[in-house]
Amino acid sequence: MDGVSVVVPVFNEADCIARTHAEIQAALSGIPHEVIYVDDGSTDGTGAILQALAEGDPSVHLVGFRRNFGKSAALAAGFARVGYEAVATMDADLQDDPREIVSLLNVMVEEQVDLVSGWKRDRKDPLEKRVPSKLFNRTTQALTGVKLHDFNCGLKVYRREVVEEVTLYGELHRYIPVLAHYRGFKVGEAAVEHRERGGGSSKFGLERYVRGMFDLISIVFLGTYQRRPLHLFGGLGLVFFSAGTLISAYLTVLWFVGYGIGDRPLLILGALLIIVGFQSVSLGLIAELIARTSYATTEPPYSIARESRAELPAARESSNGHGAP
């Protein structure tokens, strides 16, 4: 690695941001690095402290938002400005130890993975944060197939191509390993030290998990069916249509042998399932058309790990001195 870009989203951390910066600089003193602070609309004087740090330290890159846009937007802004091939992220509240960045970078190189997520094995948070977090992590594991213990740990390291390909919005920052996994990158994990909050106030709230759960559903859907929505809606439509057809066939047999079916709720259910089946398939076809027409304006449906270009004959002749002058 030629160096590391450290992206730190910051929101109202005036009590500890100077200490956070001092720890980052001490931890990375022997490594070429830059620290990209993204001030996410702080209102407690954090912006002025960060401005002073940027003026006194050439390794600091400061981005200031006009208002609070959220952690995903802050990370996206930082990712767009990284200058090194290795990228690290961490929180600004001193709960993440910057010395762990070097350890995670070593794991990334040794295990030849593209992303290493920190695992706060001995978490220094109150019970009301640990219990929802554990439930969240297990649900995310089950739905995505990504076997990490701690998706929400802010301390992570990445190869630059990961942050260049991952698109963040909403609450998707907590699902970066999932997004990277769906793009074909190799994801790993390593235990990291977790400390007591060094200042400021927690941004934790149960509403964050509610929003995050909706984002998880979106990620699972987009990661699996973004390029083939008909496979989902068509499959559901086929199930509904088949069930409705079987019910209707059963009632038809009863009608032929003389039983009355006009007042049976099963008749309404069969007709409803057939209609819903047709509608689901139609919705899948429309979604398929939208997906196919959007290929040219969205991210490509693949991720290139390496590429070897064939040398054209004209280029070979030119390099051998036999080409045209």
Q: Major β-sheet, in short? A: 7 strands, mixed
Kindly provide the radius of gyration, computed on alpha-carbon positions and rounded to a whole number of angstroms.
Answer: 26 Å
Let me know the average pLDDT.
83
| Poorly predicted tracts of residues | 315-319
Q: How many E-type strands?
A: 7
Count of helices?
A: 11
Alpha carbon gap, first and last residue: 40 Å
Helix content: 40-55%
Assigned CATH superfamily of the largest domain: Spore Coat Polysaccharide Biosynthesis Protein SpsA, Chain A
**What is the CATH class designation of the largest domain?**
Alpha Beta
CATH topology of the largest domain: Spore Coat Polysaccharide Biosynthesis Protein SpsA, Chain A
Run of helices and strands? EHEHEHEHEHEHHEHHHH
Shape verdict: elongated
